[in-house]
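Continuing the series of single-chain predictions for the mutant panel. This is the parent chain; the variants come on the following pages.
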Amino acid sequence: MPSERAKADQFPKMIRRYSKGQAKPRNDKMKLLTQCLGVPITWLDYGEGEMTKNNDKLAPITEWDNGAPLDDDEAEIPFYKDIAFACGHGAVNGDAPLEGRKLRMGRRTLSNLGVMPINAFAVTACDDSMTPYVQDGDTIYIDKRRKEVKDGRIFAIRFGELCLCKRLYRLPDGGVRIVSDNAAEFPEQVATKQQISDGEFEVIGWVWSVSRLERW
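Parent structure:
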């Protein structure tokens, strides 16, 4: 017979639903959760009393990893931890391997933006030429299907051997202005029509989201 803890490890999807308020555990599941978490049932069910009992220690909880099943409304997006797009003078990634972990996003959010999961990926921004909108260490989400330049939008680009995250503006002569938000320290550049024709400039995709964790 499986242990009570082993049974609880089978319910990551349901526990996520409980935490979102989408469902409430039945009495038998409530008892199992209190045993695993080391909290009184009155606190878990009603929010009353102390979270932990006197002299009780919280039971160790197994961390859910990328192997945890996806919810029906979730999609996975690859995060390439070894690739950086500079919001400054440029990052050279060379032949960085496309390895990393997966980030989870809501399918409804992606659908509202018109982003298909198969076309999306995430990387790290470095430097500070796009502050305050994009800061050093932020995670940027890119749609590699959307490459058409729309004036003022932020794109991930390759200019020469450098990978950049910049605002782009079309020029009448077929060139593209490459503009930093921190323009005082990072003057704009221009990719000429000839450079574009020669393959020196490439739009990798539209930056549709920026994620930031505050640091202490």
